[in-house]
Structure formats: structure tokens, C-alpha cells
Write a structure and sequence with these properties.
Layout (H helix, E strand, L loop, with lengths): L20 H5 L2 E3 L6 E5 L3 E2 L4 H12 L5 E6 L4 E2 L1 H16 L3 E6 L2 H10 L11 H5 L2
Parallel strand pairs: 2-4, 3-5, 4-6
Antiparallel strand pairs: 1-2
């Protein structure tokens, strides 16, 4: 058995390398310096293994009294279907707390996962962190 790797898509084989400490550390909740707003950076990969930590940080941001929580997925190259589906219920939960969840995306892979589970129409498009954190 042989393995053929297309060099143009070598990043698609990244899961064989495993998760690094640097990648795991990228999942972080940050204050963008605007009142009533939090930014949750998802990091390079947002898979089922990182979903509990991601959900904990998202819940903390929603219950913090913020009006807006921005999910920054611009650096995310892999978004699992399970996490994408969870964003739909997270949006509804946040709305019940009068908090708006906004998405910043950048890759086709993330957009594809959001489209596959049908949650992309729930979120507006934003071009930058400044635009998303505005009122």
C-alpha cells in the first residue's frame, strides 16, 4: 500500500501530526477593549476534543453581562461538524441572555462546515474585528 500526497493540499493531512501545545493554547477569551464585548479566539483547529473547553469559554462570555460575543474563526482551518452544529444552539442560548454572538470567518473549510449543518444563515458577515465589535 502506498500513500500519495498532493503537495498543493498538504495541510489537509495535518491531523496526522497531532495537536501541539501551541495550537491548544490559542483557544482564548480576550477583551477587545470595548465595553460589553468579548472575543473568543478559536485557534487553528476546533474539533470535538477541544469542544468542551470552547463551550466553557463561550458560556462564560455569554454569562458575563456582555452584549456581544465575537467568535474569531479567521485563523481556524478545521471546524468539526459537531462544533458547527453546537453554534446554532449556542446562538439561541445567547439570545435568551440578550447577547448577540457574531462570527468572523476566513477559510472556505469553516464556511463549508457552517453551511453543511445549516447554521451559516443565523450569522451576519463581518469583515473585521472592529466591524464586528461595533454596535
Amino acid at each position: 500500500m502506498s500513500v500519495v500526497m498532493d503537495r498543493r493540499h498538504s495541510s489537509r493531512l495535518r491531523w496526522y501530526r497531532g495537536s501541539s501545545a501551541h495550537t491548544a493554547a490559542e483557544l482564548a477569551l480576550r477583551d477587545p477593549g470595548r465595553p460589553g464585548c468579548w472575543v473568543l479566539h478559536a485557534g487553528f483547529e476546533l474539533d470535538a476534543a477541544r469542544m468542551p473547553r470552547f463551550r466553557t469559554l463561550l458560556d462564560r462570555a455569554v454569562r458575563s453581562g456582555a452584549r456581544v460575543v465575537i467568535l474569531d474563526l479567521r485563523d481556524t482551518e478545521f471546524l468539526s461538524i459537531r462544533v458547527a452544529a453546537m453554534l446554532g444552539t449556542a446562538k439561541a442560548d445567547a439570545w435568551a441572555h440578550e447577547v448577540e454572538i457574531r462570527l468572523l470567518t476566513g477559510t472556505r473549510e469553516v464556511e463549508r462546515a457552517l453551511d453543511l449543518v445549516g447554521v451559516r444563515p443565523l450569522f451576519r458577515y463581518y469583515r473585521s474585528l472592529d466591524e464586528a465589535s461595533g454596535s
